[in-house]
Every structure is written in structure tokens, then in C-alpha cells.
Request: fold
Amino acid sequence: MAKLAAMEQGAVFRCQLDQLLTQAGSSLALSSLPALSLYHSGREMTPHLPEGILGHVLVGPPPGDAAILLGGFNFHVGNNSGKHKEKPYSDPKKSSKKRHAVTTVNLVLLGMSGTGKSASGNTILGQKLFVSRPSSKPVTKKCQMEETEREGVHLHVIDTPDIFDDDMKSSVRDKHVKRCEQLYESEPFVFVLVMHVSRFTDGERDIMEKLEKVFGREAGEQTIILFTRGDDLQQAGLGLEDFLHTCQPDLKKILEKCGNRCVLFENHRSDSAQVETLMDKVIRVTEEKQT
Ligand SMILES: Nc1nc2c(ncn2[C@@H]2O[C@H](COP(=O)(O)OP(=O)(O)OP(=O)(O)O)[C@@H](O)[C@H]2O)c(=O)[nH]1
Ligand SMILES: [Mg+2]
Reply:
């Protein structure tokens, strides 16, 4: 049974179960909590929810309790006292709106040629389905969509050619964008802007303007920056924080436009933690968009 340490609204709490460290307001996949005891109206329940459903972590008001919102129902963690029978817990910030679980998300990989869009797509997919290789010329020539399941979310991963290339004819760009939009037709979608840590090019300086021009002025709100070549940073003895701290002002502005959401990938390493970090941000973006 899970016991929770800090109980203040918005506090980070530690759930002993599986050493799970979860932040209030974050999302989690039911499948990531295989042995979690859930109680609803004081009765232990195994929620009959479709596989891959997401939970939203809430911190309950009384000390010693916590709640998870799953499929529209509040479940209490490790507490069978039934004290919430009369007054089920609801997140004060979201009380007027019922939250719905996100089960499918479209991830659109965007960025300049050679930054590692296809390689990152393969890391997310856990298999090499997109062509990725060193080349002086663009490798990916058209949009391609592949599917996977990650952190309980069904993902449509869409790889794209470099639509920010100034030399690309606008008719060709329009064709790619149209195809891309067809692929992510059903909401929600998240843009993953791929950049690499070893180079920040002139063409990337105004990448947000280009992104907004193509996908709309609010595109940044649905964008996560994915930095590739984490191995280069590691070799230099640096971490993501060091990199962000010392990065160019223009790159800082891009990050700010994207709500400072960024992740670091090392595509030559099959490390699922980097994908989990990305998924955490993807889930937040989609949930924020929905509420
Ligand atoms: N060392 C290192 N190399 C990487 C990483 N990510 C991508 N690469 C390499 O960078 C090169 C380009 O990667 P791609 O995935 O083809 O880049 P892309 O953005 O899809 O390029 P286009 O399809 O031309 O737009 C490949 O040789 C990758 O192996 C990384 O994290 N570390
Ligand atoms: Mg590619």
C-alpha cells in the first residue's frame, strides 16, 4: 500500500510503492502502477478501464491522503477509510471541468535537416522505422507516420522533411504541411522541434516564426524542444542544465516561446528514461490544451 509523505497542495510527494516519485498535477499511466491499491468511496477497486488509460495525480486535502483521477473517477491511494464517501475529492483548480484521459497523441517531428528527427522518431518508437543516416543532403523526403504505445499512450509519430528549408519551393512546403495535417487530423497533437546541441544555425534563429507561419500563432504552446546528441554534451562533461544556462540568447527566446519545455536525447542509446521524460511533457501539453 502506498504511503505518502508530503501532502500539501502542489507539493511533490513520494509514494513508497515502486519508488514512484510523482508530482501533483502530473499524469501517469495506469500500467506504470501495477500494484497500486486504489480505493473509491472507501472500497478497494480494480478499475475496469481500457488499457493505456492515463491517470492524473492530485493531492487530496486531508493530511495522509492522495488521489488519482482515472477515467473521470477519483480514486484514493492507499486509504480505505471511506472518509471521502460523502465528499469525493476534486482538484480545486479543475473542479468546474471534468478531465478526460488522453489515450492517443500525434507527435509531429519538425526541425532542420540532419538534426536527428528520424533518429529521435526511432528512439521514441523503440525500433528503426524511419530512415536516419549521415548525409550532406536531406534524407527524409516525405512525411511518414508510425505508431507505438508509450507510457500508456497510443502515439502516432510523424516524421517530416525539413519544411523550414528556405530553399524549399513554397508549393512543395505546402504539400508536405498538408500531408502532415492530414496525418494528425485528429487532436491532440504535439510538435516536437528537434535541434541538436552541437550546432545552432542561422536558419534556426527564426524557426519559431516559421513554425507559427505554417501551423498558427499558438504553435509554440504545443511545442516541446528535443535536443539530440546528448552524447556530445556528455563527452564535454556537460549536462542539459549547463547547456541551457550558457546557450545563445536567440535559443533562449525559442525555448521561452515553447514554455521552456525541452528534453535531451541520445539517439545511439536505447535508454527508455529519455522517452519517459518526453512523454511526461507530451501528456502535460495535451492535458493543458484540453482543459
Ligand atoms: N551522436 C549522435 N548522432 C545522432 C543523434 N541523433 C541523430 N544522430 C545522427 O545524425 C544524423 C542525422 O540524423 P537523421 O535522423 O537522419 O536527421 P533528420 O533530421 O531526420 O534529417 P533529414 O531527414 O535530412 O531531415 C544521423 O547520422 C544520426 O545517426 C544523437 O543523439 N547522437
Ligand atoms: Mg529524417
